[in-house]
Amino acid sequence: MKKQISPSVMCVDFFKLKETIEEFEKLNIDYLHVDIMDGHFVGNYTLGTDFVKALKKETTIPLDIHLMVEKPESVLEWFEFGENDYVSVHLESTCHLQKVLSAIRAKGAKSMVAINPATPICMLETILEDIDAVLVMTVNPGFAGQKLVKSTLKKIADLRAYLDENGFENVEIEVDGNVSFENATLMSKAGGNIFVAGTSSMFSKDFSLEYGATKLRESVNV
Ligand code: DX5
Ligand code: ZN
């Protein structure tokens, strides 16, 4: 599967947002990872509905909207998204998972289920037909700059094998959290193919976005 990168927009310097988006376009970035948090499912707030609307107006880069919210089925309609966009909801955040995944597809987008580090792969068994990707959280969600939960590396490999053995070779695996250059290589070898770039890769203070994107691409194309 093509290795793709999805910079986490919550890590962008908001006072340079427009020029950063323009640079992402020049760098042929695959997705823009947009973290939405409600202060309940995770103890933080980040970006919102108007921000997503503005992004859709500003760029044609597909969005990768990560809903870290309780009962995502009750807020989905508030967000603007469509063809080529990914929208992920947390398995742990709703008792209507199949319904909300179907609603994402009904709006023309690709559906992604996100699972926290402690959530086992077997919980995906009954919704494999309803997803285009799985988002494996490699940190506990809520904040940028956290450290990798090491057990998630084996989880990525187990998930890739599980999907392939059950005829879901086309379901992609996105990884999110502490995707450093070193961790990205391990995550890629394990089977991840969409990489959320945050503070430990593209948004490090030590180098340019272009350097970070180039190095991350080298790290994952192993
Ligand atoms: C955390 C978010 C991530 C975060 C990644 O809950 O889902 O997308 O921005 O940041 P790093 O890469 O610094 O962990
Ligand atoms: Zn995220």
The helix-strand sequence is: EHEHEEHEEHEHEH
Number of strands: 8
Name given to the CATH architecture: Alpha-Beta Barrel
Rg for CA atoms: 16 Å
Number of helices: 6
> Mean pLDDT score, rounded?
97
Listed once per kind, the bound small molecules are: D-xylitol-5-phosphate, zinc ion
The oligomeric state of the chains shown is: single chain
Shape: globular
Query: Share of helix among residues?
Result: 25-40%
* Count of folded domains: 1
Strand line-up in the sheet with most strands: 1-8-7-6-5-4-3-2
C-alpha end-to-end distance = 12 Å
Strand content: 15-25%
Name the CATH homologous superfamily.
Answer: Aldolase class I
Low-confidence stretches: none
Largest sheet: 8 strands, parallel
Main CATH class? Alpha Beta
Brief descriptors of the model:
single chain; 222 residues; alpha/beta; TIM Barrel; eight-stranded parallel β-sheet; 6 helices; 18% strand; globular
Question: Can you describe this structure?
Answer:
By secondary structure, the chain is of the alpha/beta class. The protein has one domain: Aldolase class I (TIM Barrel, Alpha-Beta Barrel), CATH 3.20.20. The chain contains six helices and eight strands. It has helices spanning 17-26, 49-58, 97-106, 151-165, 181-190, 209-220, and strands at residues 4-7, 32-37, 63-68, 86-90, 110-115, 133-137, 172-176, 194-197. An eight-stranded parallel β-sheet has the order 1-8-7-6-5-4-3-2. Helix 3 links the parallel strand 4 (86-90) and strand 5 (110-115). Helix 4 packs parallel to helix 5 and helix 5 (181-190) packs parallel to helix 6. The protein is globular, with a radius of gyration of 16 Å. The relative contact order is 0.15. The model has no long low-confidence stretch (mean pLDDT 97). It binds D-xylitol-5-phosphate (DX5) and zinc ion.
